[in-house]
Structures are given as C-alpha cells and as structure tokens.
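Run log, item B.
One chain of 94 residues. Sequence copied directly from the ordering sheet:
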Amino acid sequence: MSHTHTEEEREQLRRRVHRLRGQVNAIERALDAQADCAEVIALVASVRGAANGLMAELLEDHIRMHVSDPDRDRDRDRARGAKKLIDVVQTYLK
C-alpha cells in the first residue's frame, strides 16, 4: 500500500481481511465437522465473493492513486479511460 493511503482506509482494509480470515476459518471448521457438501460450497463461494470485493477495492484505489483519479484528473481523456477501467473492475469483481 502506498504511504498516501489514510489510516482510516488501511483500517477498513484490515477489517475486510479480518472478515475474510473468519470466513476461511469457517470453511475449515465445516470440513472438520464433516458438514454437508452444499454448506462447504456455500462457504467457499462467500470467501470468493469477499476476496473479489477486496481485490476490486484495491484495484480501484490503485487506479485512482497511481494512474488517474477520474474525479480530479484535468486530462479528460485519461479521466474517462480510468473511469471505464474502474467500471470494468467493479463489474467483474464485485
């Protein structure tokens, strides 16, 4: 993470990772308890969704901080390109 991220942003990411860790632990507990396959699959799907959401947030932040922030970039073509890229990230990962 870049030093330009605020402590609040880092804390938000830490909370997401903590929840993700809890979801992974739930998978392990379900396996240990010999849970139904459908239950384990649902837990894995929730982890995948959470990981994709985290990846989307990280990619969007990276684009805004290191490529172009569409809300602030004076180069309108670059801003539009960054906005389209952010939209693609959100569409495919969230």
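Observations after the first pass:
- DSSP finds three helices and no strands in the chain.
- Residues 38 and 59 are 31 Å apart (CA to CA).
Flagged for discussion on Thursday.
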